[in-house]
Amino acid sequence: MTDLTAIKADARKAAFARRKIAHEARTGAGAGHLSEVLAGYRGVPMSGFMAIRTEINPLPAMEEAAAHGPVGVPVIQRLGLPLKFSRWEPGCALKEGPFGAMIPEVDDFFEPEILVVPLVAFDRRGGRLGYGGGFYDRTLELLRGKRPTLAIGFAYAAQEADNLPLEPTDQPLDMMVTESEIITF
């Protein structure tokens, strides 16, 4: 294990602990600011995510966005590959995907121009620490190579960290939304 790998593992462990506390203390859905941001992009193809474990829940904002244009959720094809995004609609049939995240039962893939991105930790410079698989970094690099693609982090404010252990391959966020604020970079 490299030093950076160990540093990232420690940063994830600390961030998971903060996220758990924030999740247990949450009041309301927490997606109000995300809905506010997405309202400015009505009709633009976007992806959200199906919250797992103690992640903040973007579903209320995704439901609002789906009334105006395509909304997808990430589908992991296999380790080492970018994500694909399958169209999701409120009430659509779901099945369990890799790592326990729910995905649409029927694949209807498209490329989003806005990605609402889950994360373990973030900083005030657009840095994001994910789960370690590199899925969003590969995906954002691929999509940004084709067209402007907006990456919006969505997490609890308690997941903010200083001095994230970032690498050159880590794709930056354009915006960060928490239950208490909207941060643009």
From TrEMBL:
Molecular functions (GO terms): 5-formyltetrahydrofolate cyclo-ligase activity; ATP binding; metal ion binding
Catalytically driven reaction(s): (6S)-5-formyl-5,6,7,8-tetrahydrofolate + ATP = (6R)-5,10-methenyltetrahydrofolate + ADP + phosphate
Documented EC number(s): 6.3.3.2
Cofactor: Mg(2+)
Keyword annotations of the record: ATP-binding, Ligase, Magnesium, Metal-binding, Nucleotide-binding
One Pfam family matching this protein: 5-FTHF_cyc-lig
Biological process, per Gene Ontology: folic acid-containing compound biosynthetic process; tetrahydrofolate interconversion
EC class of the enzyme, as a word: ligase
Family matches, as PANTHER family: 5-FORMYLTETRAHYDROFOLATE CYCLO-LIGASE, ATPASE INHIBITOR/5-FORMYLTETRAHYDROFOLATE CYCLO-LIGASE
Homology family: Belongs to the 5-formyltetrahydrofolate cyclo-ligase family.
Name listed for the protein in its UniProt record: 5-formyltetrahydrofolate cyclo-ligase
Protein's organism: Roseovarius litorisediminis
